[in-house]
């Protein structure tokens, strides 16, 4: 479904003498340290391969010196790669001549910089117009497009100010507007929010997510901040020493860390803000409405549980029944519809753990996870939420919680 | 040590100068004609209106550039020069200074840009600039006279050699000072090299470059007395004559005229670039 827009294959950047020989040695299995010691070659990026899907926010994360900034600068050839391929819609950027590369930079890939890199001698509007101006777009059109971009980032009315008259957050909005004015397919954001103070940073992250809903650009976002990566990223690539350590969704990174390095990296993460309902939900025990209380009680006894979800033939959730009510109904000769609790708590599978906790702690019956059309997906018991928060997400832990629930 | 014969640098230089004179004589002649034409053009232009009219024009310019203080200083200063009777000489000097200033800018800025872009050029040009600035000015008056004979032209050439370094140096510095991230931003949006130079680097380097241009004009003014020794007419010649004839009073008057001219030129060039920057 998702088509990949940008793909890199075996991309390397080496610094120092005789870098081509260095690439061959890397391929032969030399590691970074050996290459530095024996040949005096520094490896910036080491044979990276990955592909970015259209419309996603792809986060490249790593500590300083991990090669992430070098990598992103190779994507528009601000830094010339030593070897490898960069395929934009299948066309290799490295085989392009200067004019073709300029076209790519003008129409397809634009960039937002860490320290904003606004031109101080130009007004906000002139800054945003820059990309169009150098393409010789006529004045009215470029003004119109620039104003649109400024409006999008909420800076209408500031167009005649100079960058130094704006706060940091506003300056970076200008940076963003400048990158958007060209209507690129891909936006490279190099530590774009790192220079901002934490509160402004949060706001900018929220706004970026909101903007992305409207624009559906492909965004490649570089950061050293795990929280930022988890908030923004549809997928995250974690880099270390110029190489890819792990690539996956935020949840995959947290729940299945590829190795000790990733584990240490994610150690301090507040899981409640990352893990979603779909991760902690279990298979629901269900019964259809046409069965009687006797069947329901039997099912509960067999499974060792105290309540059941009632669904229709389309697996849509109708409500929940408890064992206690079922027993009473059996005596009174009532049907399941008479004891059905229809106002039980429901959440979507994207609900964050932190929000689940509140719901489960106040609810009498287990939490149902449903799709938008009402189809039942799973059940969340309180113990599972606590267990996940405590960091244990393995299956054994989930099983333990079932017993606890009994 | 005494076994080593004297290295004949003197003979080499003499021979080189002779060879250049015979080989490029024609070229030097036409260059001489052009420079002389420009100097005369400016001098005559400045001498064309009545001194009072020219002072009025300058005062208006001064007001536009530096408001009242500069206006008053310019008007009173130039009226004094006229009153003392050095008007023609001062205008001749102004013509010479403007000409050498323009030539310095015309060559200095492109050389400065080139040095900023090319390490090799930088490595050749900058030591040469040190050489030009430290070599006593009198020394290169000699070859200037050899190639261009006496008069105003060798004066202009000597002034340019002496005065061009700040323009080159500060142009290079100004461009190198443009932050890497801004240059990167210009590239990232697909600028051609020329677009990057003219839309980003030069505008940002402008204040630094203009300091260089200001220095260049000041230095070429400081050469007027020396230039007068090889026959350049103007206020410098008056100073020189006064010194050789021990006319202290006249020397002071002429010196005063140079100082007034220097201050006005300095404030004009500084102020001009500041207003220009604001207008951008």
TrEMBL record, chain A:
Enzyme class per UniProt: translocase
Signal peptide residue numbers: none
Presence of the UniProt keyword Secreted in the record: no
Keywords annotated in UniProt: Amino-acid transport, ATP-binding, CBS domain, Cell inner membrane, Cell membrane, Membrane, Nucleotide-binding, Oxidoreductase, Transport
Catalytic reaction annotation: a quaternary ammonium(out) + ATP + H2O = a quaternary ammonium(in) + ADP + phosphate + H(+)
EC number from the UniProt entry: 7.6.2.9
Domain ABC transporter: residue ranges: 30-266
Keyword Glycoprotein: no
CDD domains registered for this protein in UniProt: ABC_Pro_Gly_Betaine
Protein localization: Cell inner membrane
Protein name per UniProt: Quaternary amine transport ATP-binding protein
Primary gene name: opuAA
UniProtKB/TrEMBL annotation, chain B:
Keywords annotated in UniProt: Cell membrane, Membrane, Transmembrane, Transmembrane helix, Transport
Coiled-coil regions, chain positions: none
Membrane topology: Multi-pass membrane protein
Listed transmembrane segments: 52-81, 93-117, 137-164, 216-236, 248-268
UniProt record similarity statement: Belongs to the binding-protein-dependent transport system permease family.
Organism: Paenibacillus aceti
UniProt-listed Gene3D superfamilies: MetI-like (1.10.3720.10)
Subcellular location: Cell membrane; Membrane
Annotated ranges, domain ABC transmembrane type-1: 90-269
UniProt cross-references to SUPFAM superfamilies, sorted A to Z: MetI-like (SSF161098)
Upper lineage: Bacteria, Bacillati, Bacillota, Bacilli, Bacillales
Name used for this protein in its record: Glycine betaine transport system permease protein OpuAB
């Amino acid at each position: 479904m998702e088509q990949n827009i940008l793909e890199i294959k075996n991309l390397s950047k080496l610094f120092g003498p005789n870098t081509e020989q260095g690439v061959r040695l890397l391929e032969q299995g030399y590691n970074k340290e050996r290459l530095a010691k024996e040949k005096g070659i520094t490896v910036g990026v080491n044979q990276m391969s990955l592909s970015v899907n259209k419309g996603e926010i792809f986060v490249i994360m790593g500590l300083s010196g991990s090669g992430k900034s070098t990598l992103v600068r190779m994507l528009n050839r601000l830094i010339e790669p030593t070897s490898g391929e960069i395929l934009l819609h299948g066309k290799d950027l490295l085989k392009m001549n200067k004019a073709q590369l300029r076209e790519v930079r003008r129409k397809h890939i634009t960039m937002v910089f860490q320290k904003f890199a606004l031109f101080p001698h130009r007004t906000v509007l002139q800054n945003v117009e820059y990309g169009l101006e150098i393409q010789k777009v006529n004045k009215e059109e470029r003004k119109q497009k620039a104003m649109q971009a400024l409006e999008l980032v909420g800076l209408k009315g500031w167009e005649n100010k100079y960058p130094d008259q704006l706060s940091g957050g506003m300056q970076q909005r200008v940076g963003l507007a400048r990158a958007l004015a060209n209507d690129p397919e891909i936006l490279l954001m190099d530590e774009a929010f790192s220079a901002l103070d934490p509160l402004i940073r949060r706001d900018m992250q929220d706004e970026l997510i909101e903007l992305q809903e409207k624009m559906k650009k492909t965004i490649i976002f570089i950061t050293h901040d795990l929280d930022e990566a988890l908030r923004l990223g549809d997928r995250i690539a974690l880099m270390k020493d110029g190489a890819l350590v792990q690539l996956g969704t935020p949840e995959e990174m947290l729940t299945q860390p590829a190795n000790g390095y990733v584990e240490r990296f994610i150690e301090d993460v507040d899981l409640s803000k990352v893990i979603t309902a779909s991760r902690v939900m279990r298979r629901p025990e269900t019964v259809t409405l046409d069965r009687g209380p006797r069947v329901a009680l039997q099912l509960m006894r067999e499974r060792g549980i105290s309540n059941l979800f009632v669904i229709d033939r389309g697996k849509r959730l109708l409500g929940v029944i408890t064992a206690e009510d079922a027993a009473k109904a059996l005596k009174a000769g009532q049907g399941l519809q008479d004891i059905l609790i229809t106002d039980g708590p429901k959440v979507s599978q994207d609900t964050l753990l932190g929000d689940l906790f509140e719901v489960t702690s106040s609810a009498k019956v287990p939490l149902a996870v449903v799709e938008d059309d009402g189809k039942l997906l799973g059940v969340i018991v309180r113990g599972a939420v606590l267990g996940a928060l405590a960091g244990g997400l393995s299956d054994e832990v989930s099983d333990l919680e079932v017993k606890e629930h009994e | 040590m005494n076994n080593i014969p004297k290295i004949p640098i003197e003979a080499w230089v003499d021979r080189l100068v002779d060879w250049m004179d015979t080989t490029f004589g024609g070229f030097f002649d036409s260059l001489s004609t052009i420079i002389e034409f420009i100097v005369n053009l400016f001098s005559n232009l400045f001498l064309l209106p009545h001194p009072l009219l020219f002072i009025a024009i300058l005062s208006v310019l001064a007001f536009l550039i530096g408001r009242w203080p500069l206006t008053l200083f310019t008007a009173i200063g130039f009226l004094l020069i006229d009153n003392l009777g050095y008007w023609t000489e001062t205008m001749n000097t102004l013509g010479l200074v403007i000409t050498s200033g323009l030539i310095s800018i015309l060559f200095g800025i492109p050389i400065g840009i080139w040095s900023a872009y090319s390490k090799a050029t930088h490595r050749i040009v900058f030591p040469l600039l040190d050489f030009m600035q430290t070599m006593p000015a009198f020394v290169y008056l000699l070859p200037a006279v050899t190639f261009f004979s006496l008069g105003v032209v060798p004066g202009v050439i000597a002034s340019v050699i002496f005065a061009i370094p700040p323009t080159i140096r500060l142009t290079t510095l100004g461009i190198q000072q443009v932050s890497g991230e801004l240059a990167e931003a210009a590239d990232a949006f697909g600028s051609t090299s020329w677009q990057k130079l003219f839309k980003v680097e030069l505008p940002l380097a402008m204040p630094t470059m203009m300091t260089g241009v200001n220095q260049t004009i000041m230095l070429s003014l400081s050469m007027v007395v020396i230039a007068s020794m090889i026959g350049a007419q103007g206020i410098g010649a008056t100073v020189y004559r006064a010194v050789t004839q021990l006319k202290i009073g006249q020397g002071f008057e002429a010196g005063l005229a140079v100082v007034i001219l220097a201050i006005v030129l300095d404030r004009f060039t500084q102020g001009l670039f500041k207003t220009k920057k604001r207008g951008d």
